[in-house]
Amino acid sequence: MKFLVAITSFVGFLMVVLPGLLYQFFGLDLGTAFTVFRYGVYVGGAALVLILLQVLFARKSMRLGATFIYALLALVAVGLPLSMMNKGKSVPPIHDITTDTQNPPQFDAILPLRKDAPNPATYAGGEITEQQLRAYPDIKTQVFALSIEELFPVAVNSVEALGWEIAAKNTTNYTIEATDTTLWFGFKDDVIIRLTAQGEDTLVDIRSKSRVGKSDLGKNAERIQLFFKTLRERTNSPAN
């Protein structure tokens, strides 16, 4: 029983943790990675059942420290995927979020980097827009009480502070294009920020779009909100 508990706990944990790293660094097929990831839940669940049986019927042979570690590994194997699944159910299955749904910022310098991406760079609109507006009503154009010349370098610094890889900084049309790479699977999501002068103020629009996947699990909206939070902190500007 102890050996079976150890094996199922470790295997379940590895089936959940390793697919992202194997996809990112060793070219594992994404479909295979997700399949292994999904089945890790079942293996982790089996480990938890075995641990429960061990507690009920073989308690005397248990080693408390080892059992605690096995239970922790199994909980990660079950909890992490279930958490992601629940997140997916709470957000719309979209992967292109913008503050300006009528005239979204258009990628330019990023386009060559997306040429093999399953998700095209074009903005679909229609039902995608409707789903975004229902789910993220707070994602909208922001106004800053600074001139465009003053705000642009602060926006660039904010992007750099967030660790995004800048592809272009255009001081002619005041746009910034960058890529953010997710930590676990290494998914690359592209961002374009557009500044527009409005009198003495500046309008800031941003668009964040995933290269792969139907649903972004809310990541693009979170990225936009994080950028605005960072920019406001660096300009001491209140939210609007």
From TrEMBL:
Transmembrane segments: 7-27, 39-57, 64-84
Taxonomic superkingdom: Bacteria
Keyword Transmembrane helix: yes
Pfam families: DUF1499
Keywords for this protein: Membrane, Transmembrane, Transmembrane helix
Record keyword Transmembrane helix present: yes
Protein name: DUF1499 domain-containing protein
Species of provenance: Salinimonas marina
